[in-house]
Amino acid sequence: MRTETAPATEGAAASLPAGWEEARSRVYAVGLAAALPAVERPLADIDGYTLAEPLTTRTDLPAFPTSSVDGWAVRGTGPWRVVGRVLAGGTPAPLTEDGTTVEIATGAMVPSGTTAVLRVEESTRTADGSVDGVPRSGPEWRRPGEEAAAGEELLPAGTPVDPAVIGLAASCGHDTLRVRRQPRAALLVFGDELLTAGPPAAGRVRDALGPTVPSWLRRYGCQLRPADVVGPVADTLTDHVAALRTALTHADLVCTTGGTMHGPVDHLHPALAELGADYVVNTVAVRPGFPMLLARVVGDDGRVRFVAGLPGNPQSAVVALVSLVAPLLTGLVGRAAPVLPHVTLAEPVPGRGDHTHLALVRLDRVAGTARPVQHVGSAMLRGLSGADGFAVIRPGSTGAVGDRVPVVPLPLLPGERAW
Questions:
Q1: What are the MoaB/Mog domain coordinates in residue numbering (predicted)?
Q2: What is the CATH number of domain 6-27+183-332?
Q3: Nearest CA-CA partner of 310 in 407, 237, 214
Q4: DSSP output for 258-286
Q5: 41-60+146-180 fold
Q6: Which residues pair with 1 in a beta bridge?
Q7: pTM, rounded to two decimals
């Protein structure tokens, strides 16, 4: 994978846009190279985190022979004289004499000396209180290490933690796990034309990204407080530089909205140059959203931070999130590079010439098909609100009915599984 960067003094006209797939590979690689440190966290607090170390068992699973049924642990042939009872959580005495039995509950430890477990529903009691019946030929208990041996690796580092992983870790005897620290994010909203309340009017538009982007970032696993959302930042170079400097003191990733081109009030590129940033990606050959960027800033402490420049048009900004921010964050937490699912197109989707087309689609999960939605202009959010993701139409092609194409899912809630 290419990981070259260019200084932020380089203008957009000085380099060709990166291909969409190349850009994703590049930002994932720089994220992985700057993977966040491991932290120790209680199991109750790690849903949505990522394993920093392999998950191994602290003991055999199960740790002792465990009855699979309610019944009788017997020794020798019947009928058997009842000499006790063992419940889950107890440690039974061994069965030392043939013709004896103890009542046993599901999940209880099987006494040593047991030759069979007789199911309660297949047993009878004799007049003298003994137990009789015919045990099944197979063992009715779980053997130690049947699920896993002590020290066995169950899940590799980089595994996303969900409730199933938490339960498995608990069953292995863990109270805490080492996980990657979650990325800290900030959002800077640029644009003097933006309103933060009420309907748009008199040439000013309502800021839709300030309330929206933080929610997407949290769904990608970022930590982001209300105080980390700043704006609208005044359209001056001085204000842009000051806002970026402040955000970069605490955030691993700073997202900005608007200002990614080279218009009269687009100050992001000069601000990045003043901060000594390097471009990882400076524009991407994708529609919508091509003027997106990702830059890398090395702080005085030597730690790498990132700035993701999202276009000001709302749908384009979300395209930038799924295209650049998602793979970057995947690398930062040490997960494997994302592999996109594929679906079958139920309706045609046009191409965009030499650019990759990310087309909003609605998924039919039963049929495994996708259909494009309406109202998909780069400044529109109506289509996005009814979509499940973006169909990927590669450069120089179109999507015909029946074609199998990759799909970029919209970010899920923490713990949810992808399509």
A1: 186-331
A2: 3.40.980.10
A3: 214
A4: S--S-STT--HHHHHHHTT-EEEEE-EEE
A5: Molybdopterin biosynthesis moea protein, domain 2 (3.90.105)
A6: none
A7: 0.86
Cα 19 versus chain centre, distance: 24
Closest CA to 181 of 338, 329, 30: 329
Q: What is the mean pLDDT of residues 78-92?
A: 95
Average pLDDT, the chain: 91
* Cβ pair 121, 69 in contact under 8 A: no
Q: What are the pLDDT digits (tens) for 25-75?
A: 999 999 999 999 999 999 999 999 999 999 999 999 999 999 999 999 999
Chain segment 99-147, per-residue pLDDT in tens = 999 999 999 999 999 999 999 999 999 999 999 999 999 999 999 999 9
φ/ψ (deg, to 5) at 21: -65, -40
CATH 2.102.10.10 fits 66-142, yes or no: no
Q: Indicate the helix (H) or strand (E) that contains 101.
A: strand 100-104
Q: E strands within 176-217?
A: 176-180, 185-190, 194-195, 205-206
Task: For residue 50, list its beta bridge partners.
Answer: 160
Cis before residue 79, ω within 30 degrees of 0? yes
> Minimal CA–CA distance to 334: which of 148, 95, 157?
157
211 vs 201: CA distance, rounded Å: 19
The SS3 of residue 91 is: coil
Cα 156 to its chain centre, rounded Å, is 15
More confident residue, 166 or 5: 166
Query: What fold does the segment set 342-409 form as a domain?
Result: Beta-clip (2.40.340)
- Residue ranges per domain, the chain? 6-27+183-332, 41-60+146-180, 66-142, 342-409
Task: Name residues whose C-beta falls within 8 Å of residue 221's C-beta, 6 or more positions apart in sequence.
Answer: 48, 49, 50, 182, 183, 329, 333, 414
Using alpha carbons only, give the angle 371, 399, 391 rounded to the nearest 5 degrees: 55
CA dihedral over 223, 226, 229, 230, signed as positive or negative: negative
